Amino acid sequence: RMVAAALAGLSLLSLFTCGYLAWGSRRGGAGEAPGNLLGEEPAGGAPRSQPHIIFILADDQGFRDVGYHGSEIRTPTLDKLAAEGVKLENYYVQPMCTPSRSQLITGKYQIHTGLQHSIIRPTQPNCLPLDNVTLPQKLKEVGYSTHMVGKWHLGFYRRECMPTQRGFDSFFGSLLGSGDYYTHFKCDSPGICGYDLYENDNAAWDHDNGIYSTQMYTQKAQQILASHDPRKPIFLYIAYQAVHSPLQAPGRYFEHYRSINNINRRRYAAMLACLDEAINNVTLALRKHGYYENSVIIYSSDNGGQPMAGGSNWPLRGSKGTYWEGGIRAVGFVHSPLLKNKGSVCKELVHITDWFPTLITLAEGQIDEDIQLDGYDVWETISEGRRSPRVDILHNIDPIYTKAKNGSWAAGYGIWNTAIQSAIRVNHWKLLTGNPGYSDWVPPQAFSNAGPNRWHNERVSWSAGKTVWLFNITADPYERVDLSARHPEVVKQLLRRLSQFNKTAVPVRYPPKDPRSNPKLNGGVWGPWFKEDEKKKKSDKSKGVNKQKKSKSKKKAN
């Protein structure tokens, strides 16, 4: 009780600490010849006031899986960039791929785009709704060249859903959520397989030389930077496939991790080592071609790590796909010569939706009044150490996911049905309802054997039928002390806030699979299958039939 009371009473402190990490030379790779780490920038044209924006999104990187969080995996590039920039240590994303990407590109919560449930599946006729203005579209309005390299995962069933139709001048990468790193093939189910590598709107057969995707995407980013005029602003969005499963990496990246017995952790470490080197080479290109001094580099993971696939979120609870901190609290930092408080740690609340208004404002763009955003401009928070304008985060409300069999309106004090999976953060407090997902703490020693050893995991047993949890995240970031019974009034307040958010939700978009999506019907390639002409023909036929029916009914009436 004393511990719970102490946790409930602690307040949030903003901490800013300088960090310095030793730096050693290393050889090139992942798309670049050997060279000095981060390199030297040659003299170039005078930079414009609009900064170059480089957004690097890693896939499934665990919270612990970066050197400065204590990982055994070496990430010297990430460590140095973060140490010389601003580390975001109260930074949140969504627990899965599509939700994080949709919120990054629109600045809106899932409940306001209809993507509240799960991810967009390859066979679903679904994509980010076309009436949502995207970040690259807004940046193009103020003169930016916009380029995307890597994983899209925001739907492609219609051509209008493709990246080049959503604001990007060019696109090179994959449309699906995962696939082979070398062959770029993906099977969604037995017999439903296809090729998934695109250059703009067409399959990139001619550009595929069997290169490992992390290296291939880095080479493409280098080409874009080499061919663009650094006197003109550029938005380069690099969404790496790594370190998402399948666990594949070039052989030489294993050399430092032979001592890791767990095969998944060893492969994961090699993948992350390759990714770290790739980011070094992107930074080298920024310096080489004259972008760096007027650039903002943002690094983020899209969700927490998956322990069964080698990722570690220790000491956070839970994993990818859950609303525990291990699923949604991410590795993130900003590196830029334009930062005022370099070498600092930001403990203020920041969410992935905040990048939309932050970057548009930084680019001297305008945010339309009719766009109802859920994100905030947090540049001054990050750059100058000011308080965050954000005081809450709706982690999500998923009305389809109601697997908490014992959830009820009664458990939610008549305010909320606790069978519904939802999570919200308000100031220090975090509330979860329904079934939040896999809830173990997975310590580093869990990876000491050949397979993930669950005997090492810390597990919490709660009373049967529990569907509400309350934590003071500021005091208890590891979610070890549930305070819901001790503070029912706080629970009620947060349930009311959930109810208020829910009133603004749009209907869920989660259609059944469409057999026309089979790549066999599209030349063996995953790609748009919905034909607008077919829809028009069907609608024209139905209109014709309706006209005939109306004319017949008129004759009968006469």
UniProtKB/TrEMBL annotation:
A GO term for molecular function: metal ion binding
Keyword Cytoplasm annotated: no
Keywords attached to this entry: Calcium, Glycoprotein, Hydrolase, Metal-binding, Signal
Gene3D superfamilies, sorted: 3.30.1120.10, Alkaline Phosphatase, subunit A (3.40.720.10)
Signal peptide: 1-24
Names of required cofactors: Ca(2+)
Biased composition (Basic residues): 544-558
Coiled coil: none
Residue ranges, annotated region (Disordered): 506-558
Ranges annotated as biased composition (Basic and acidic residues): 530-543
Domain Sulfatase N-terminal as annotated: residue spans: 51-363
Xref: InterPro entries: Alkaline_phosphatase_core_sf, ARSB, Sulfatase_CS, Sulfatase_N
Superkingdom to which the source organism belongs: Eukaryota
PANTHER family: ARYLSULFATASE, ARYLSULFATASE J
Protein family according to the UniProt entry: Belongs to the sulfatase family.
Name assigned to this protein: ARSJ Arylsulfatase
Organism: Donacobius atricapilla
